[in-house]
Amino acid sequence: MTVSIEIGARAESGGLSGNQPALLDLEELLSTRLLVQGNSGSGKSHLLRRLMEQSAPWVQQAVIDPEGDFVGFGDRFGHLVIEAADHTEAELVAAGERMRAHRISVVLNLEGLDAEHQMRRTAAFLGGMFEAPREHWYPVLVVVDEAQLFAPAASSEVPEEARRTSLAAMTNLMCRGRKRGLAGVVATQRLAKLAKNVAAEATNFLMGRTFLDIDMARAADLLGMERRQAEAFRDLARGQFIALGPALSRRPLPVRIGAVETASRSAGPSLLPLPAAAPEAMRDLVLTPLPDAPVRARRAPAPPPPDLLAQLAAHGDRQREAARAEEAETVPAQRTLEDAADHARKVRAVLAAILTDPDAAFRPVGVLYQDFLVRCRIEGMGREALDMPRFRRALATARSGIDPQAAETPDWREAERLASALPEDVQPVFLLVARAAIERAPCPSDADIARAFGTHSAGRARRQLAYLEERNVLVLREDGAGRRSAAVIGPGWETLPAPAA
């Protein structure tokens, strides 16, 4: 069965082409991907709303909503609205898995979060959807508004680890999602700000009004248009797009998006008359002095102390009660310590199993964290065996190769304390060198350091060592044969010279 939805009407030279509808083949879209581009005010969100409303009866949907524009779908179409600010990353991983298992359409509302937390929570939710078991690979239309926030083309003010995790999740959606039933629909204000490996996977396009030359040129290239035709994107009206792709049209086709049933919570700008007020009234409204700080109430006088005999009796009662409580808690406390030790052993075993994969060292931390949570559930440790910050520390320790017994020594605890003051991506490198220094082993090679840093580049590995030396954490030396050794500043641990290459 072929399901086609009407996204609007065909348009040509400023008017509608009769009543010919512009159709989108929904089944073809689920086998491909869609890229929507348009500057602010071009009608991009209106287009997404129309697409989702028309397809809601036919396919499960997941919406990544950074501004809270689509929460109205919960009332109109029964979507589950998840407030991302109220949930941890582990909970969102589980939500991504469960929504696929139960085929529930979801709007992930990221409103109110800063850019870093929007990236982390989106990556967690998409990761849960991506890692769902094979028997739950039902088709899902995954709509990501303002996709340049989650797959930026360049570094920004957010931490690099958060950017890489979010970019990896978006890349998985667009590159590998089709086999798992995930059909990505990404919308962006500017193509130049969207990562190329995300945009390049789309085979259907809806290009709206664009003014910058670089964006017009990229849009024309994606649609197979000549460069001299690129200026046509400046002349598009609000709500008008150029469509191309197997699910839309075999040649560039102007379309005008139809009406929608739901409304956004963010209203557009509108002109209103200014309020009329006398100058004195305006001064009072704007420059009224702030109220004085509230006067603190006086404390009530303390009651007189009890007599000495009453104090002694009360003190004896408290001592006897404390002794009984200590006796009652001794056995549970021992059990708690045993449970904590058993949990730590299981965590180390799961991390060791993950790192046996040769490619694990080069995967983003967010992907490894999702794998870790799944393995912990299999081991019966629950969904929140470790939160993300503790997982990063445990992963850095595991990558150093330290023996479990040696990890409990005061020297290693001092090494972890020194590492905590370093950026997270450099901590595994420092701990790897610190372990070799504590054990009086040869200095790790460039290949070992590169693997701990998550790269194949020996040059980047050497730069990390130079960075640690600049931070006054390590001192690097070479002997007459050019063999490198490293010493940890403070404790004075020193590696042996590395073997000759």
UniProtKB/TrEMBL annotation:
The keyword ATP-binding applies. Residues 315-327 have a biased composition (Basic and acidic residues). Residues 314-334 are annotated as: Disordered. Pfam families: DUF87. Keywords: ATP-binding, Nucleotide-binding. Residues 30-212 form the AAA+ ATPase domain. One of its GO terms (molecular function) is ATP binding. InterPro entries: AAA+_ATPase, ATPase_Atu1862_pred, HerA-like, HerA_central, P-loop_NTPase. PANTHER family: HELICASE MJ1565-RELATED. This is ATP-binding protein. The lineage of its organism: Bacteria, Pseudomonadati, Pseudomonadota, Alphaproteobacteria, Acetobacterales.
